[in-house]
Structure formats: C-alpha cells, structure tokens
Amino acid sequence: LDGKLVSLSDLRGQVVLVNFWATWCAPCRVEMPEIVRAYERHKSRGFTVLAVNVEEDAPDAAGFAQQYRLPFPVLLDKEGRLSRAWRQYFYRPQWHGRGGAPWPADGRND
After folding, report:
1. Cα–Cα dist 59/79, whole Å
2. Which of 38, 74, 87, 110 is buried most deeply by CB count within 10 Å?
3. Whole-angstrom distance, CA of residue 84 vs CA of residue 98
4. Is the pTM of this model over 0.85?
C-alpha cells in the first residue's frame, strides 16, 4: 500500500507466507485474524507475511488492512498479474437466486 516494490529475494532466509485475498472474499475475512496471530507469534523467528490484494483499488485494500489491523506488508495486484502467475484464481460469488451466499456470512464453508 505504500507503493514500495517487494521482491522475495529481499526476504531470503525468512519463512514467507504469501497470502492472496480480496475484500469481498468471505473465507479471506475468516482466515486473516489467524494469519495475524501466526505472524505476531512467529515474526521474531524470521516469519513474515505478504498480503497480496487481488484486483482491487488501494482505498478498499487499505480499509480492509485497517479493519483487520494487518501488521505486515499489504501489496496490490491491481491487474491480477501476480495472482495469475502464481495460479491463484478468485471467483466472485454468484448467488443464482439461492437467497444467499454459497457459504455462511462468517466465511465457513462446512
């Protein structure tokens, strides 16, 4: 979000979790607090997280990062090039008249 480019080679020797997410993704909202806890627990031992927002604008990503108090770098993949290169595909939910989301509002897909 700060406009800096990040290279995995700069993080050589660290354990790096690259997490692709979107603000509209319910499972992403469920997993992010756990990722924050893991980061806080293990950052002193060389663990870091790169949170890659997929195909959204900076203000939307910044709002999510603030809401979830993300303490690690939030990167923007505005055109989806990085996520496609890593073969990470997001599909926006389609309701198809079912009267709700394909998973509960809390993001679980039991």
Report:
1. 15
2. 74
3. 30
4. no
Q: Which residue is it, tokens 């992403």? A: 28
Q: pLDDT tens across 41-97, in order?
A: 999 999 999 999 998 999 999 999 999 999 999 999 887 777 777 776 655 555 444
Nearest-angstrom CA–CA distance, 24 and 34: 18
Q: Which of 57, 51, 48 is nearest to 75 (CA)?
A: 51
Structure tokens at 53: 């927002």
How many Å apart are CA 79 and CA 84, to the nearest integer? Answer: 9
Secondary structure class of 44 (helix, strand, coil): helix
Q: For residue 18, give the nearest of 69, 67, 79, 88 by alpha carbon.
A: 88
- What values do phi and psi take at 7, rounded to 5? -120, 135
The Cα 65–Cα 57 span in angstroms is 12
Q: Which residue from 28, 20, 49 is spatially nearest to 37, judged by alpha carbons?
A: 49
